[in-house]
Amino acid sequence: MFAESSLICVIRPTIGYMNIAKVPLSEINISDPEFWAKDRAYREGAFHTLRQESPFHFFEEWEFEDSPIPRGPGYIALTRHDDIWHVSRHPELFCSGKGSNIADLTVELNEFFGSIIAMDDPKHFRLRSIVSKGFAPKEIKRVEDFVTNKATELVDNIIAKFPNGECDFVNEIAAPFPLEIICEMMGIPRADFAQIFKWTNTILGVGDPELVTSIDDLLMAGLEMFNYAQALGEDRLQNPVDDITSVMMHAEVDGERLTTQEFGSFFILLVVAGNETTRNAISHGMKLLTDHPDQRDIWWNDFDKNTKTAVEEIVRYSSPVIHFRRTATQDTDINGFHIKEGQKLVMWYNSGNRDETIFTNPHLFDVLRIPQPSQIGFGAGGPHFCLGANLARREIAVMFDEIRRRLPKMRITGEPAMLQSNFINGIKRMPCAWN
Predict the structure, then answer these.
(1) Starting at the edge strand that comes first in sequence, how are the strands of the sheet with 323-328 ordered?
(2) Contact 100, 392 (CB under 8 A)
(3) Inter-residue contact 250 to 237 (CB < 8 Å)
């Protein structure tokens, strides 16, 4: 940890506040993988420094040994809420088609792993218009009962499986809950759930040596998942049933349908994003409610009234997706800072959600925080706003309602094992107890 003199207490020392480190600008390198293994106080302090002293800071890209991906030209880090909001809402100036992550993959690999998040209009509009048919209000309404039933089933299972009242919160609750919901929606057989989970962990585990040891692991997981999805899409094209895969494979926009190749790539995005982001929001939420029992009491004492703000605050505070990238399509300015055509801009959502000029006491976890202006954990608006945001909100609310009613003494009992990643703010393991 840090010496007392190197810590600053944000606003005032009171329940719910995080102490952050004083980090000089000269020592900050958010491209270094080791930065993401540092203490949370240090990282929050570094982004505080960037927002205050260098909100358009240029960073060299990291050169990874034995990587087939060449080192890129560097990027500008956007760390303030308004700048991220501006870039997200001007796709004509800042495109996604050259890559949504920092590294410069080929167009084919970008679309293979990123699907619609690595596309621009008109291609993006066409594909999103088709796949959004599977997320129409009537489709989401159909799964609401399943969301509730799944939460009940998982709590039933842990009560029966762990009579001592202790288990791993991530593996037994936070991870299977959204995974099984999205698999059920897509019509994936239960026997395949474990394999889907393994693929998603590999794809999003890049950067963590415990989960992914080489780029080959990532590529193999992606290819296997793509082949699985293509087979599923082809089957539903010929034999439609009552699931979202069938809806998407048969949906038409201007007479066009998804190809099985397009469905394969979208499947990777949907299953990975639909599982991992909600999983981590729920995990962080349980840790936050344990650390701040006053906030848990406020929410749970009037659950229905306070759920909307509590869920938004969990997403703001945890920011499950840490960054996405855009590329400037022409010379332009952002709040007076000149951007050159072709420059990469990386939007650090975790930092924008802590912007002191936007959020009062941003390091305070406050379940009653008014959600205006909006947190940017689901993206900052624009054409790439999270397609599954409403489903994620519903899942978070339902799971905590189930815990509140049936396991009101549940708490986290040890430090979480954090994912080492500059992309996903993930928790790999975290013990809990409820007796």
Answers:
(1) 56-59, 75-78, 344-348, 323-328, 94-95
(2) no
(3) yes
**What whole-number distance in Å separates Cα of residue 109 and Cα of residue 317?**
31
Question: And the tokens for 207?
Answer: 């950067």
- 75-78 and 56-59 as β-strands: parallel, antiparallel, unpaired? antiparallel
Q: What are phi and psi of 328, to 5 degrees?
A: -70, 130
Rounded mean pLDDT, 184-189: 90
Would you call 432 helix, strand, or coil by DSSP?
strand
The token pair that represents 352 in the structure block: 């924008």
Write out the H or E segment, with its range, that includes residue 428: strand 427-429
What is the spatial distance between Cα 36 and Cα 422, in angstroms, rounded to a whole number?
6
Least confident segment among 75-84, 196-205, 302-311: 196-205
pTM over 0.85: yes
| The dihedral formed by the CA atoms of 44, 50, 55 and 58, expressed in degrees to the nearest 10 | -110
Q: Can you read off the two tokens belonging to residue 106?
A: 């080929």
Q: How far apart are CA 166 and CA 78, in angstroms?
A: 41
Phi, psi of 100 (to 5 degrees): -105, -10
H helices within 15-62, ranges in order?
Answer: 40-53
d(CA 25, CA 52): 10
Structure-block tokens of residue 333: 């300015």
The answer to whether 63 and 71 have CB atoms below 8 angstroms apart is: yes
- What is the token pair recorded at 239? 């034999």
The 3-state DSSP class for residue 104 equals coil
The larger pLDDT score, comparing residue 275 to residue 297, is at 297
List the one residue out of 198, 223, 226 whose CA is nearest residue 212.
Answer: 198
Distance CA 106, CA 116 (A): 15
Sign of CA dihedral 270, 288, 176, 151: negative
Q: Rounded CA gap, 171 and 39, in Å?
A: 24
Q: Which 8-state DSSP code applies to residue 61?
A: P
Angle (CA) 124 125 128, round 5°: 80
Confidence of residue 2 (pLDDT cuts 50, 70, 90): very low
Which two three-digit tokens encode residue 73?
């030209």
In angstroms, rounded to a whole number, what is the distance separating the alpha carbons of residues 167 and 162? 7
